[in-house]
From TrEMBL:
<dbReference type="Pfam" id="PF07714">
    <property type="entry name" value="PK_Tyr_Ser-Thr"/>
</dbReference>
<feature type="domain" description="Protein kinase">
    <location>
        <begin position="108"/>
        <end position="372"/>
    </location>
</feature>
<dbReference type="InterPro" id="IPR011009">
    <property type="entry name" value="Kinase-like_dom_sf"/>
</dbReference>
<dbReference type="GO" id="GO:0004674">
    <property type="term" value="F:protein serine/threonine kinase activity"/>
</dbReference>
<protein>
    <recommendedName>
        <fullName>Protein kinase domain-containing protein</fullName>
    </recommendedName>
</protein>
<dbReference type="GO" id="GO:0005524">
    <property type="term" value="F:ATP binding"/>
</dbReference>
<dbReference type="InterPro" id="IPR051681">
    <property type="entry name" value="Ser/Thr_Kinases-Pseudokinases"/>
</dbReference>
<dbReference type="InterPro" id="IPR000719">
    <property type="entry name" value="Prot_kinase_dom"/>
</dbReference>
<dbReference type="InterPro" id="IPR001245">
    <property type="entry name" value="Ser-Thr/Tyr_kinase_cat_dom"/>
</dbReference>
<dbReference type="InterPro" id="IPR008271">
    <property type="entry name" value="Ser/Thr_kinase_AS"/>
</dbReference>
Length: 382
């Protein structure tokens, strides 16, 4: 990293630190921050192109319109570099966002499918001569007149609008870039940059149960932490940080993705907000459906660090519901391997503390991991 980029990153982190500290209540959190710094200050670690994609342009007979606007909104805007969203992120009209991020369909080519979920499918594509990922979210049959279908439709639409809104205001090298979004009939479309390295889950699967090397683990963790530091500085809580939502390019540069269940921090867990995430990575306060803040992401990051450290899925011997019960009622956490560096173990234990106020901020985690990385570099040159 050049001296210029280091200076820019340090300046950005200082601003984020000031914003985050402004919201910290009581001296206990500051003391926790100081103890984190003391604990790790002397850490010693031992040891493109579109060809061949089978791309096709969407036929004009489909009569898709790039000018159609969504009627429901969960919008926001940035004023003077500070986050600004309507009350609970849902009062500001999205007409401006819709105009800015409408897709020029004459420039969009669809390629092969490369992933799918319960309600969404991902395709490779090319948009304006750039490789992209096209996420399609299909709503239930519009003619279905049952309560479950209506609830599912509302939930999927809310997730789409949230993701489009938050991504339209986030700009960072470690956050997935939005290229465009639109709705046609009963399908939502979200176009983002394409990352050829797949997800962190894919990388861990290739390890076949073996942990990542320590230098690779620290490098990936540091990029995730930097992305999350920025996301929190914008007043956004991700709420679903897990390997499936961490994407990598061919050089293992990290991008945080999937903001479908993200929220404006001031409204997380408020009336009308139904927390959604994944139990194995979910913080206790979210499992209990209490009001929560950005520290839920720190908890998930701790679980994610453990997963990279061990190569195992957390609570693999339990069902997700059993894991959630054990986390809340028994304060169960995954077991550490015997050869885990004591400093890394201490960081993980801080992150997944049952008390949100005892968990560090991401700017603190970045500083700790930067020291780890520097120490590894010194060991490697000896």
């Amino acid at each position: 990293m050049s001296s210029t980029s280091i200076a820019a990153h340090t300046k950005e982190r200082t601003k984020a630190k000031q914003r985050n500290e402004y919201h910290l209540p009581a001296t206990a959190i500051f003391e926790a921050a100081k103890s984190i710094s003391r604990l790790f200050c002397a850490a010693q670690l031992c040891v493109q192109g579109g060809s061949g994609l089978g791309l096709t342009r969407k036929p004009s007979s489909c009569n898709w319109s790039s000018t159609q606007r969504l009627t429901k909104s969960e919008g926001g805007r940035v004023k003077n570099g500070k986050p600004y969203f309507g009350h609970c992120g849902c009062r500001v009209t999205t007409s401006e966002i819709t105009r800015k991020w409408r897709v020029d369909l004459s420039q969009l080519y669809f390629g092969p499918r490369f992933s799918s979920g319960a309600h969404s499918t991902l395709y490779r594509g090319v948009y304006r001569n750039q490789l992209v990922a096209v996420k399609t979210i299909r709503l239930p049959d519009a003619n279905a007149d049952d309560d479950e279908s209506r609830k599912l439709t509302a939930r999927l639409e809310k997730q789409f609008v949230r993701e489009r809104t938050f991504l339209s205001h986030l700009r960072h090298r470690n956050v997935i870039k939005l290229a465009g979004a639109w709705k046609e009939s009963d399908v939502f479309f979200l176009v983002t940059e394409y990352l050829s390295g797949g997800s962190l889950r894919t990388l861990l699967h290739k390890q076949e149960g073996r942990p990542l090397s320590l230098d690779k683990l620290i490098a990936i963790a540091l990029e995730i932490a930097r992305g999350m530091e920025y996301i929190h500085s914008r007043g956004v809580v991700h709420r679903d940080l897990k390997p499936e939502n961490i994407l990598l390019d061919q050089d293992l540069r990290v991008k945080v993705a999937d903001f479908g269940v993200a929220c404006k921090e001031s409204c997380c867990g408020s009336s009308g907000d139904v927390p959604a995430g994944t139990y194995r990575w979910m913080a206790p306060e979210m499992i209990k459906r209490k009001r929560h803040g950005r520290k839920v992401d720190v908890y998930s990051f701790g679980i994610l660090l453990w997963e990279m450290l061990t190569g195992c899925i957390p609570y693999e011997e339990m069902t997700p519901v059993q894991a959630a019960f054990a986390v809340v009622h028994k304060r169960t956490r995954p077991a550490f391997p015997e050869d885990c560096p004591i400093q890394l173990r201490a960081l993980i234990e801080r992150c997944w503390s049952s008390s949100p106020e005892k968990r560090p901020e991401f700017w603190q985690i970045v500083e700790v991991l930067e020291r780890f990385e520097a120490t590894l570099g010194q060991v490697g040159t000896k």
